[in-house]
Specification:
The structure holds 2 protein chains of 2 kinds.
Chain A: H1 2-9, H2 12-28, H3 37-55, H4 63-81, H5 87-101, H6 108-128, H7 132-152, H8 161-185, E1 209-211, H9 215-219, E2 224-230, E3 242-248, E4 250-251, E5 255-257, E6 272-274, E7 278-284, E8 291-292, E9 294-295, E10 309-311, E11 317-319, E12 327-333, E13 336-338, H10 360-371, H11 380-393, E14 397-398, H12 409-417, E15 419-420, H13 422-435, E16 440-447, E17 450-451, E18 458-461, E19 465-473, E20 477-481, H14 483-487, H15 504-512, H16 514-536, H17 540-549, H18 557-584, H19 588-602, H20 613-624, H21 629-643, H22 651-660
Parallel strand pairs in A: 14-15
Antiparallel strand pairs in A: 1-5, 2-7, 2-18, 3-9, 3-16, 4-5, 6-13, 7-12, 8-11, 10-11, 16-19, 17-18, 19-20
Chain B: H1 3-18, E1 24-26, E2 33-36, H2 38-56, H3 60-84, E3 87-91, E4 97-98, E5 103-111, E6 117-124, E7 131-135, E8 139-147, E9 153-156, E10 160-164, E11 171-177, E12 182-186, E13 200-201, H4 206-213, E14 222-224, H5 236-244, E15 251-253, H6 255-260, E16 261-262, E17 264-266, H7 275-292, E18 296-300, E19 303-308, H8 311-323
Helix pairs in contact in B: 2-3, 7-8
Classes of the chains: A alpha+beta, B alpha+beta.
Chain lengths: ~675, ~325
């Protein structure tokens, strides 16, 4: 209450400035995590400084201050990004400029510059996040900026801000249909020119390399990697849900890497499938990597407008550019499949290569197994089974905190620590297989996922990231082996995931009711997914689907533009019609009087403007004599209709008389 | 004058001549105009930049923002136009003014609709002195438009203009109004005029003019009643007023003086070469004489107003001064 009283006592200028500063704060707040520290500091100081000046009604600083601060900001931007042109540098500069411009709020033009910079700063928020929360925050900010703009155009007195806010709200509400029409029908096109391919920072995910231990952080990351909706809502068993990502086949003793595309050769994957395919739709969160996730294993690449998707020989699906934004595609996969050559070829040599001298004890163990009479001359499956048996029975355990490994990771896993998570296990397993001269490789991706009961989408989190192995077998090709399942059967296909330590709030809810927390999360994610599906992923294909639904046979972008044009024309006509209608809403009594007057004027009577009926009647009598009598009487009745306590004739009757009357000529 | 400006003025003249003069103007679709302001063009440029950024970075939320803003601007355009459309303006009959002095027109704005209209500015067209007002819902508001009449005479009221930029400032909505009333502009009174001229003797009485010359300006014309004054010389009005105040004094016209002297304010005696300067001085004299409450007559440019006094007489004199050639 005291706060409102204080604001109420401020002069109008100070109040308006404080309001604008507050709105700028809302615009800038969501991007604070993306900005360098000096930018946050400078912006805060400038905004607070400006607010103080406004409250104390002191003069603004001289222009030299601005020039100096701008120079400092430019220098700091250059020092931070080594350029002032890139996207992040640009965003930083926009933020600083917006703050500095408030110190130069003198003329009306300055205010406009602030508004327009503000609109642009709102857009820059979307570079880092397009979530529902950001959208809500920016809606508030937009309404705030519009309110300030409307308020700036109410020059009289000290209008309450609520009045301006009401006007702004109405405009937004009435503008919403226009927004919807434009959003749905404005043709989505490819970028007009190449944008600087900024590395998207802070987005974790799978990577092209696997330094043993790097997935540990992923296992704790609850972020969503993708959402999957199976056709008909029928998913394969959870334990069969392996979403394939990068395939790592080169090992330097410490780190697994995927070979560059030109080294993988151009042979087809030689995929052999059995059984019925599973159809599904994937909504992939931006990863800034070129690969697409697909359930093992699709035969045809997903069709995505604007992207060329190819399968690599190791069955990975790669697009021709990085996925920088939310992407949706359909795919069909065959859960039962084999791939690769049936006979051992020279190309398979890559998959048995080990750096010389690495993991000597594992190599020695392989030699021992080969010498084992029980396994003598056995085929590949027997060796795989032996290794898996060892994992199951040798006292190996699954843990998310295996500690730091040395250089010989396989040796350490097999003989010393005997604990690790999927990548340690998969890596040690593949090294052993290769030491046994069995071609083997590591496949990374996501396993399992969680069904959101609210909207029926399967959610793949970064925590579902997984690494498994593929082993080549003569006569069968590459087959999947998941050694982690032997160590920790619960890790694969389990409902109980290894959860991240909850935050304070989630923790409190969790202790009260674990299911409540889960339900809340499911509901929230369903809302978020709806947002993703309907807003963020409203793409060209959806637009064309829309046209198909309203009856276009083979819609194109041109049709889209045509439909948009027609909608706009229809809207304009509707607006014009409304104006006409509004005009006809003038007082019917006045209109009737106006018609009578017009008629008399045409007959040669000159009347003063705004003459009342009685005066017209008198003048008509004087001018036309007896011929004016009917008009005279009619006019008096018209007057009575309006002003008498109990009018004898209604307007329709008067109108009928008007038509039948003998008008003087 | 360069040909462009000349063409412009001709177009302007044609534009003005199309509107019939009237003291009441109802604003409709036909006489309310709208154009984008420079700020509006800036806003359009901002929208374009937002759109290009949304396309290039494939930001669907960016599209939403851009289109939301575009929708608001489109609605704002209608709101802006509707702020003037449907308003009716009525010019109060203008009072006569002195040339060169600050003066006002009073205009009553009437709003019949059920919501208020904000930020309406009125001005004499081309003057740049805006008077801003809000018109309440189903109510009226009186606005005083400042102007400075330049020349004396009977002029048509200059074209007025009403404008609004509410709500976003992206559009300028305006109308031009040619009122039918005319405006009488009195000459500007000379700031420091000399004393009033001497009264003129009535025909055939030359000596008195010399005697009165020293005390020019003190024309009492009334003196206390003296025994023997004829009744027709008694100023009954003044007597009545005095009796009402509780005294029984009587006043007589100073017949001697009134018969001998008459104050004529004459352009010939104003003593300035320039006609306008003379008229200006006469104007100052008229006001001075009126203040002193003496009878005075006016002779200027072949017109003559016989001596008298009072409000109507003053107006009459000023009118003659305003319109004489």
């Amino acid at each position: 209450m005291r706060m409102t009283a204080w604001v109420g006592a401020l002069p109008r200028d100070a109040r308006d400035t404080l309001f604008l500063l507050g709105v700028i704060g809302i615009v800038l707040l969501p991007q604070v995590p993306e900005l360098p520290w000096w930018c946050i500091l400078l912006t805060t100081i400038v905004l607070v400084w400006r607010g103080t000046l406004a409250v104390q009604s002191k003069p603004l600083p001289s222009r030299w201050w601005l020039v100096a601060l701008l120079a400092v900001a430019l220098a700091a931007t250059f020092a931070t990004y080594r350029t002032v042109l890139g996207r992040e540098a640009g965003v930083t500069l926009v933020v600083v400029l917006l703050a500095l411009k408030t110190l130069e709020l003198r003329a009306r033009r300055d205010a406009f510059v602030i508004f327009f910079l503000g609109f642009f700063a709102m857009l820059t928020n979307f570079f880092s996040s397009q979530s529902l929360l950001t959208a809500v925050a920016m809606l508030v900010a937009l309404l705030g900026l519009l309110t300030a703009l409307v308020n700036a155009h109410m020059p009289v007195g000290r209008p309450p801000l609520a009045q301006a806010a009401r006007t702004a709200g109405w405009m937004a509400l009435l503008g919403a249909p226009i927004m919807l029409a434009l959003f749905m029908l404005f043709p989505r096109m490819a970028p007009l020119w190449g944008t600087p391919n900024d590395e998207m920072t802070g987005r974790s995910g799978l990577s092209n390399t696997m330094r043993v231990g790097s997935i540990a952080s992923l296992a704790l990351d609850d972020g969503i990697a993708a959402r999957v909706k199976f056709d008909g809502g029928v998913a394969p068993p959870q334990r069969q849900l392996y979403f394939r990502g990068p395939v790592l086949s080169d090992f330097d003793g410490r780190e697994w890497t995927a070979p560059p595309p030109w080294e993988r050769g151009f042979l087809s994957a030689d995929l052999r499938v059995q059984g019925e395919p599973v159809g599904y739709e994937v909504t992939l969160e931006p990863s800034n990597r070129p690969w697409l996730l697909a359930l093992d294993a699709p035969v045809k690449p997903p069709q995505i407008p604007g992207l060329r998707v190819m399968a690599t020989p190791d069955l990975q699906w790669v697009a021709n550019r990085a996925i920088g934004d939310l992407l949706r595609y359909r795919a069909e996969s065959y859960p039962q499949f084999q791939s690769g050559p049936l006979r051992r070829t020279g190309a398979l040599q890559r998959y048995v290569a080990l750096p010389p001298g690495s993991n000597p004890r594992t190599v020695a163990m392989a030699a021992q197994m080969k010498a084992d009479p029980a396994l003598a001359d056995a085929a590949t499956p027997a060796y795989v089974q032996a290794a898996l048996d060892r994992l199951r029975t040798g006292g190996y355990s699954y843990t998310l905190e295996p500690g730091l490994y040395g250089n010989e990771t396989a040796d350490e896993f097999w003989f010393e620590r005997k604990a690790g998570f999927c990548e340690h296990i998969a890596s040690a397993f593949v090294v052993l297989m290769r030491a046994l001269d069995i071609p083997a490789r590591i496949v990374t991706g996501y396993q399992g996922g969680e069904l959101n009961g609210v909207d029926g989408y399967w959610v793949l989190r970064q925590a579902d990231a997984h690494a498994w192995a593929e082993v080549w077998e003569a006569g069968k090709g590459w087959t999947r082996v998941d050694p982690t399942a032997s160590v920790s059967p619960g890790r694969i296909g389990a409902f109980q995931r290894l959860a991240a330590p909850p935050g304070l709030f989630a923790g409190a809810i969790g202790t009260m009711s674990p299911t409540l927390a889960q339900n809340l999360r499911a509901a929230w994610e369903a809302v978020n997914n709806g947002w993703n599906q309907w807003v963020l992923n409203y793409t060209q294909s959806r637009q064309l689907d829309l046209l198909k639904n309203i009856g276009f046979e083979a819609p194109s972008l041109q049709d889209l533009a045509t439909v948009l044009l027609w909608v706009l024309i229809a809207a304009s006509l509707a607006g014009a019609g409304w104006t006409l209608w509004e005009r006809s809403r003038h007082d019917p009594w006045l209109r009737l009087l106006g018609r009578a007057r017009h008629r008399l004027e045409k007959a040669g009577l000159s009347l003063p403007e705004a003459a009342p009926p009685r005066q017209i009647a008198t003048q008509a009598m004087a001018h036309f004599g007896a011929a004016g009598q009917p008009v005279h009487d009619w006019l008096l009745r018209l007057e009575a209709q309006r002003y008498a306590k109990t009018p004898e004739a209604g307007l329709p009757a008067l109108r009928a008389e008007f038509r039948k009357m003998a008008w003087p000529r | 004058m360069n040909p462009l400006a000349a063409t412009r003025r001709r177009i302007d003249g044609w534009f003005l001549s199309r509107r019939p003069p009237s003291d009441t103007l109802a604003l409709t679709q036909r006489n309310v105009y709208i154009v984008p302001t420079p700020a509006g063009w800036m806003l359009a440029a901002t929208l374009l930049v937002l759109l290009v950024a949304s396309i290039n970075y494939q930001l669907n939320l960016g599209y939403l923002l851009t289109f939301m803003l575009a929708g608001c601007v489109a609605v704002g355009m209608h709101v802006s136009h509707a702020t003037l459309r449907g308003l009716s303006m009525h010019l109060m009959p203008p009072e006569p003014q002195y040339a060169g002095s600050a003066a006002v027109f009073r205009v009553v704005l009437h709003n019949a609709r059920r919501s208020a209209r904000y930020g309406i500015g009125l001005a004499v067209r081309g003057s740049g002195h805006w008077a801003w007002c809000d018109v309440p819902a189903q109510g009226s508001e009186t606005v005083e438009i400042a102007f400075q009449p330049a020349r004396r005479g009977l002029h048509a009221v200059p074209p007025l203009t009403a404008e609004t930029r509410f709500p976003l400032g992206a559009f300028r909505v305006w109308t031009v109004w040619r009122p039918a009333s005319s405006l009488l502009v009195y000459p500007a009174p000379e700031p420091h005029p000399p004393a009033l001229p001497a009264g003129e003797p009535l025909a055939g009485d030359a000596s008195a003019s010399v005697a009165r010359a020293a005390s020019a300006g003190e024309y009492d014309g009334v003196r206390a009643y003296r025994r023997g004054d004829p009744l027709k010389l008694v100023v009954w009005k003044k007597a009545a007023r005095a009796q009402a105040a509780g005294s029984d004094e009587l006043f007589s016209r100073d017949t001697q003086q009134a018969q001998r002297q008459q104050l004529w304010l004459d352009a010939q005696t104003a003593g300035l070469p320039d006609l306008e300067a003379r008229i200006s001085r006469l104007c100052a004299w008229v006001l001075m004489a009126d203040r002193l409450g003496v009878d005075y007559g006016l002779r200027v440019a072949g017109q003559q107003v016989p001596p008298a006094q009072g409000e109507a007489h003053r107006r009459r004199c000023l009118e003659v001064l305003a319109t004489c050639a």
